[in-house]
């Protein structure tokens, strides 16, 4: 059972590991990221941020989709975290996940801020608008106690 799909460039950190997993009642966090498995430093940091009693699994986006479609994750209350809007789009469409939490995204020269710690490029905006036009619920909410804000109200 997929509890939530979140976009967060940091993947696993205190907010995600503790606040969201506790609020959602998840027992497994799936990090779907094409670059994470080859990054030993990031993997070490992820292992340190793992909350006790919660399984953390890292897979590429395609492998995450395949694992979920195969049914191997059916026994878990799954919280999925991806690091980019593009990855969320791929995953949400492949698995028909209708709710996407737009968490922290990295500031870069080609991005502009739309909410606290949320930076998007023109391409990100197009993808997000397409998702919303296709019936996906995209919202910002850093932690569960924050107000949920519809991304439609934040984009140009």
Description:
The structure is a single chain. The protein is α/β, with parallel strands linked by helices and 156 residues long. The protein contains five helices and nine strands; from the N terminus they run E-H-E-H-E-H-E-H-E-E-E-H-E-E. The strands form two sheets. It has a seven-stranded mixed sheet, sandwiched between helices. Helix 3 runs parallel beside helix 4. The model has no long low-confidence stretch (mean pLDDT 95).
Q: Mind describing the biggest β-sheet? A: 7 strands, mixed
Calculate the terminal CA-CA distance, rounded to whole Å.
34 Å
Figure out the total of helices. Answer: 5
Average pLDDT: 95
Helix and strand content put the structural class at alpha/beta
N-to-C series of helices and strands = EHEHEHEHEEEHEE
| Shape assignment | globular
Oligomeric state of the chains present here: single chain
Percentage of β-strand residues: 15-25%
Estimate percent helicity.
25-40%
> Which regions contain 5 or more consecutive residues with pLDDT less than 50?
none
Radius of gyration: 15 Å
Strand line-up of the largest beta sheet: 3-2-4-1-5-8-9
Strand tally, please? 9
């Amino acid at each position: 059972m997929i509890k939530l799909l979140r976009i967060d460039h940091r993947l696993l950190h205190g907010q995600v590991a503790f606040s969201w997993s506790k609020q959602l009642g998840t027992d497994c966090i799936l990090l779907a990221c094409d670059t994470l498995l080859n990054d030993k430093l990031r993997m070490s940091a992820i292992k340190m941020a793992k909350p006790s009693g919660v399984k953390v699994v890292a897979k590429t986006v395609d492998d995450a989709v395949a694992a979920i479609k195969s049914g191997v994750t059916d026994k878990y209350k799954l919280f999925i975290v991806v690091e980019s809007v593009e990855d969320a789009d791929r995953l949400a469409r492949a698995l028909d996940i209708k709710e996407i939490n737009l968490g922290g995204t990295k500031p870069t020269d080609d991005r502009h801020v739309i909410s606290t710690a949320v930076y998007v490029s023109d391409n990100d905006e197009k993808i997000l608008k397409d998702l919303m036009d296709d019936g996906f619920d995209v919202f910002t909410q850093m932690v569960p106690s924050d107000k949920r804000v519809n991304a439609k109200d934040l984009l140009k």
